C-alpha cells in the first residue's frame, strides 16, 4: 500500500481543497483517514474553511464561462482521456478504495471499472445531447428545444462508493458543459484526492483552466454550505435519508435543484418457482457484499412458505462458509464495516430486533483477535422477523439479513413495498405471470425492479435511483443527463407576419 500512497503523494497531512492542479491553503479542521482494514492512520487531510471554499467556487464560476464554450464532443474527448487515465490507474485506485473504505479488492476494482464505463458512456453522450422539434401552430414558424448547461454542479457523496458516485455525476455534468465541485465523504478523503490528481493531469494536458473540477474536503458543514449556496444551481447528494431531507429542504428554500440518491431497504421475493441455487447466490452476495454497506444491499428476503424451510437451510449453510477478514486478501468474502460507529449501529440493531421478537438463525457479533484489531469486522447474521418491526422498516448499513414468509404474491408485493424506502427490488421466479405482475404498475414501487437478479449491483447504462425516501433522483445511464441541463424552448418566426399564438388578434 505504501507505494500506492506515494504514487498519489498521500503522506502526512494533505491539503483538502483543490481547483484542479492547484491545492489551496485552509485552516479547516484536520481529518484523519483511518483504514478499517487495520485500524491505523493512513494520512491526514486539511478540511476546507469558508475562505478556501469560496475561492474554489469563484474558480469554478470563472471556468464555467470557458468550459461551456468548448463544443460538447470536444468535452467528450477530454472525458475519454480521463477514462484512459483511469484504466492506467485502475489497479492502484482500486486497491486504495479497498484499503480506505474496506470493501473487497474485487469490489474496489469493480468500482473503478464503473468509473471507466461511465466515461465511455459520457463520450457517446457528448454527441447526443439532443432535444425535440415540434410543429408550430403558426405559419412560417419553427419550434424546437435545446439543452443548455446549468453552471456549477455540487456533488456530495457517501463513503460506501467513494469514487464511482462522483464519476457518475461529474462525467455527465462535464460533457453537458457544467463545472463540478465535489465534497466527498469525510470518511474517505484520500480516494477523492487520488481522483482529483488523475483528473487534473488530463485537464492540464488539454490546457483547460483551473476550476472545471474542484474538490472541497470537509464534514457536514461543508455540505451545508453547498446546499445553501445560490451559486450552485444543482446539488446532487448521495447518502442517508436524514442527510437528503436536510439538503432537499435547504436547496428548495432557494428554489435550486437537487438530485437525491438516498437509503434503500431492498428485498428479494423468492417464489415457489424460483431457481433456488441462483437465488442463493443473489441473496448472499446482496446481503454480505461490501459488508452490507451498499445502498442496494439485500436487507429482506420474502420467501414463499412452500420453499421457506429449504431455502433458509441453504442460506444458513452458506453463511457458515463465509470467510471474513482482510478485504485485500481475495480469499475473503466479507471485509470490515467502515468504522466503530458503524459497528455500534449494527449491534444496536441486533438488540432492537431481538427486543421486537426477531429470532436469529445465524447470530451476529464482533470479531476479535489477530487480523481483527481495527474492531470493525462483524459477523453477517440472519434474523426471522415480521415486516412491520420498526427495525425492519429502517436501513441499518450492516450485514443483517431479515427473512420472512408469504403465502400469496399479492401479499409478498405488499410486504416488499411496505417500507419507507424505494430503491431496489427483485423477484426470483421462472413463472412469467409472477414476473410480469411484479414489474407491472401494481408491482414493485422501487426505482429498480429485477427478475432473477439480486438487488445489488447495477449497470451504468440504466438510470439509477429510487422512489419514496430514497429521494427520487436518477443518475448514470438512460436520459439521466437531463438533470444536469436546463431545457429551453425556441420558437422562430421566418415569415413576414407576426401571428400570435392561440389565434389572438392584436392590430395596431
Ligand atoms: P451520510 O448521509 O452520513 O453522508 C453522506 C454525505 O453527506 C457525506 O459527504 C456527509 O458529509 C454529507 N452530509 C451529511 N449531512 C449533511 C447535511 N445535513 N448537509 C449536507 N451534507 C451532509 O451517509 P453515509 O454514511 O456516508 O452513506 C451511507 C448512506 O448513503 C446509506 O443510507 C446509503 O443507502 C446511502 N447511499 C445511497 C446511494 C444511492 O444511490 N441511493 C448510494 C450510496 C449510498
Automatic annotation (TrEMBL):
Keywords assigned: NAD, Oxidoreductase
Signal peptide: none
Gene3D superfamilies, sorted: Aldehyde Dehydrogenase, Chain A, domain 1, Aldehyde Dehydrogenase, Chain A, domain 2
Family the UniProt entry places it in: Belongs to the aldehyde dehydrogenase family.
Quaternary structure and interacting proteins, as annotated: Homotetramer.
Enzyme superclass (EC): oxidoreductase
E.C. number(s) listed in UniProt: 1.2.1.3
Annotated protein name in UniProt: aldehyde dehydrogenase (NAD(+))
Pfam family, one: Aldedh
Domain Aldehyde dehydrogenase: 23-489
InterPro entries hit by this protein: Ald_DH/histidinol_DH, Ald_DH_C, Ald_DH_CS_GLU, Ald_DH_N, Aldehyde_DH_dom, ALDH7A1-like
GO MF, any single term: aldehyde dehydrogenase (NAD+) activity
Domain of life: Bacteria
Keyword Chloroplast: no
Active-site residues from the entry: 261
Amino acid at each position: 500500500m505504501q507505494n500506492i500512497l506515494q504514487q498519489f503523494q498521500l503522506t502526512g497531512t494533505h491539503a483538502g481543497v483543490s481547483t484542479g492542479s492547484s491545492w489551496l491553503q485552509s485552516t479547516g479542521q484536520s481529518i484523519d483517514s483511518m483504514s478499517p482494514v487495520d485500524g491505523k492512520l493512513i494520512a491526514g487531510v486539511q478540511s476546507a474553511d469558508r475562505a478556501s471554499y469560496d475561492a474554489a467556487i469563484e474558480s469554478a464560476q470563472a471556468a464555467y464561462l470557458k468550459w461551456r464554450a468548448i463544443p460538447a464532443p470536444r468535452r467528450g474527448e477530454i472525458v475519454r482521456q480521463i477514462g484512459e487515465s483511469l484504466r492506467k490507474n485502475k489497479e492502484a485506485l482500486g486497491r486504495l478504495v479497498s484499503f480506505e473504505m474496506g470493501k473487497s479488492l474485487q469490489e474496489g476494482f469493480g468500482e473503478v471499472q464503473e468509473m471507466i464505463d461511465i466515461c465511455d458512456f459520457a463520450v457517446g453522450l457528448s454527441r447526443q445531447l439532443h432535444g425535440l422539434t415540434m410543429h408550430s401552430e403558426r405559419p412560417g414558424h419553427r419550434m424546437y428545444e435545446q439543452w443548455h448547461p446549468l453552471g456549477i454542479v455540487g456533488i456530495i457523496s457517501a463513503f460506501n462508493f467513494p469514487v464511482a458516485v462522483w464519476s457518475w455525476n461529474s462525467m455527465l455534468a462535464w460533457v453537458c458543459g457544467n463545472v463540478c465541485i465535489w465534497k466527498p465523504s469525510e470518511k474517505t478523503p484520500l480516494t477523492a484526492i487520488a481522483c482529483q490528481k488523475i483528473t487534473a493531469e488530463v485537464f492540464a494536458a488539454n490546457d483547460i483552466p483551473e476550476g472545471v473540477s474542484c474538490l472541497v474536503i470537509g464534514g457536514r458543514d461543508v455540505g451545508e454550505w453547498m446546499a445553501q449556496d445560490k451559486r450552485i444551481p444543482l446539488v446532487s447528494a448521495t447518502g442517508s435519508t436524514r442527510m437528503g431531507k436536510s439538503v432537499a429542504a435547504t436547496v428548495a428554500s432557494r428554489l435550486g435543484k437537487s438530485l437525491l440518491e438516498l437509503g434503500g431497504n431492498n428485498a428479494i421475493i423468492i417464489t415457489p418457482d424460483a431457481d433456488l441455487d441462483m437465488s442463493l447466490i443473489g441473496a448472499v452476495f446482496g446481503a454480505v457484499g461490501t459488508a452490507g454497506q451498499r445502498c442496494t444491499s439485500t436487507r429482506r428476503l420474502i420467501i414463499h412458505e412452500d420453499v421457506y424451510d429449504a431455502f433458509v437451510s441453504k442460506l444458513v449453510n452458506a453463511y457458515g462458509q463465509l470467510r471474513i477478514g482482510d478485504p485485500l486478501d481475495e480469499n475473503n468474502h466479507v471485509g470490515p464495516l467502515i468504522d466503530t460507529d458503524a459497528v455500534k449501529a449494527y449491534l444496536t440493531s441486533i438488540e432492537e430486533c431481538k427486543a421486537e421478537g426477531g429470532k436469529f438463525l445465524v447470530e451476529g457479533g464482533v470479531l476479535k483477535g489477530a487480523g481483527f484489531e481495527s474492531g470493525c469486522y462483524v459477523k453477517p447474521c440472519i434474523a426471522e422477523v415480521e415486516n412491520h418491526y420498526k427495525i425492519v422498516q429502517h436501513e441499518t448499513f450492516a450485514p443483517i439479513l431479515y427473512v420472512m414468509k408469504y403465502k400469496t404474491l399479492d401479499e409478498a408485493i405488499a410486504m416488499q413495498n411496505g417500507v419507507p424506502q424505494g430503491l431496489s427490488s427483485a423477484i426470483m421466479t421462472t413463472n412469467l405471470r409472477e414476473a410480469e405482475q411484479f414489474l407491472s404498475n401494481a408491482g414493485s414501487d422501487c426505482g429498480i425492479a429485477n427478475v432473477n437478479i439480486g438487488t445489488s449491483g447495477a449497470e451504468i447504462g440504466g438510470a439509477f435511483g429510487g422512489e419514496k425516501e430514497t429521494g427520487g433522483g436518477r443518475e448514470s445511464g438512460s436520459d439521466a443527463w437531463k438533470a444536469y441541463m436546463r431545457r429551453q424552448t425556441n420558437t422562430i418566426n421566418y415569415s413576414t407576419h407576426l401571428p400570435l399564438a392561440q389565434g389572438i388578434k392584436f392590430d395596431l
